[in-house]
Amino acid sequence: MDLAGKNVVYLGGFGGIGQKCVQELLQRQIKSLAIFDLVENAAILAEWKNNNPNTDIFYQKVDITQKSDIETAYKETAQRVGHFDVVVNGSGLMNDRLIELTIQINLLGVINSTLTALEYMDKAKGGRGGLIVNISSVAGLQPTALMAIYSAAKSGVTTFTRAMANPIYYAHSGVGFITICPGFTDTGLLDDIDNKTTFTYETPMLAMFNKVKRQRPEDCASNLVRAIETAKNGAVLMLETGETQEVDMPDLWKPQFED
Ligand SMILES: NC(=O)c1ccc[n+]([C@@H]2O[C@H](COP(=O)([O-])OP(=O)(O)OC[C@H]3O[C@@H](n4cnc5c(N)ncnc54)[C@H](O)[C@@H]3O)[C@@H](O)[C@H]2O)c1
């Protein structure tokens, strides 16, 4: 996909990875950028607007745990820009001591945002098609015991997004889906891990966690935006230590049919 002239919605655009992705997107001469986030970062928003006078950049307040916030933000954005070409679901929280919130933000929020965006993008409903990018994690590719709840939520994101990418749905809606699985990336999400693990007792996993190599958010972001440009429906992409690797997800079960 050539991003020039496109309308983009970015959820979590003021976050560590989000800010770097926005900067990459703005280099592509996109037509508009709606940032859905919990709190406005007025200083960075003003800087982006100043430096990119040809892109309509604006903020919509969204608490992703509130379905009504999501619906209002998409409605107002559609009224302002007409249609969306790309949606990035990039909000997130890693804190296994907050079980419900972990599921609400990381999984339910992504599902609600995706299904709401589809109402506007689905060609069968008068939309123009496009691409929805859901940010999962390497913890959404395999169990990450230190953060079992986060890992469960992210595995849900991976499976949900792969299901949405089904070719039958794609033929109907014209909306493609990709799953992004970053490895450890140096952002605030990884702060204060000692107080966010699934259990309170010491395990060697915490010491290991603190030794894992972290990629720079700008490297993750440039690979993420390249993945948007490639726009391969159904791709599951691991973005780890500055590289992109497409993950082959095998079918472990096949239905057996009645004769
Ligand atoms: N940093 C990593 O190592 C890493 C690794 C794998 C996946 N990820 C995923 O990448 C995405 C971005 O993470 P990050 O590292 O930039 O973290 P971050 O904490 O810097 O950013 C998280 C973003 O989510 C937003 N958010 C949190 N709660 C919200 C809510 N209730 N409603 C709306 N927005 C909310 C925050 O405001 C922020 O913009 C997340 O989905 C995260 O799970 C991060």
Automatic annotation (TrEMBL):
Keywords carried by this UniProt record: Oxidoreductase
Pfam family, one: adh_short
GO terms of molecular function: alcohol dehydrogenase (NAD+) activity
Source domain of life: Eukaryota
GO cellular component, one term: cytoplasm
InterPro entries in UniProt: ADH_Ceratitis-type, NAD(P)-bd_dom_sf, Sc_DH/Rdtase_CS, SDR_fam
Transmembrane regions listed in the UniProt entry: none
Similarity remark: Belongs to the short-chain dehydrogenases/reductases (SDR) family.
Protein name: Fat body protein 2
